[in-house]
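Hi R.,

Here's the chain you asked about this morning:
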Amino acid sequence: MSEQQSTVNITEYLAINLATERWTCRVCGHDIANARENYKTGLLVHNRDPREIHRPILDESYEFTYAPDPAWCRIVEFYCPGCGTQVENEYLPPGHPLTHDLELDIDALKRRHLSAVEG
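And here is the predicted structure, written out as tokens:
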């Protein structure tokens, strides 16, 4: 099976190489992490102040401005170390662990993909 045949696109920016069982960036091909683990562990992480994204609607002199309070909410951005593409982001309370949002059955994916390629 060739490199291209063993790669399965999972999201807009993530693919899995079934031969090596590794997450890869679809933009630059950078090897990110073990596909049996959380892909976010292999990405660059930026904790952004939510007020940078959601500017206050009211004057900042007011106590409540409709901007998220960084004591209650953080925005975590994940970037490919190879090309800098933003792969994912999530809103979390401070101190909350990163979300493990993709956990695939790699063995079943291999069987299905191999049978489709051999066809």
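One quick note: DSSP finds two helices and seven strands in the chain.

Cheers,
M.
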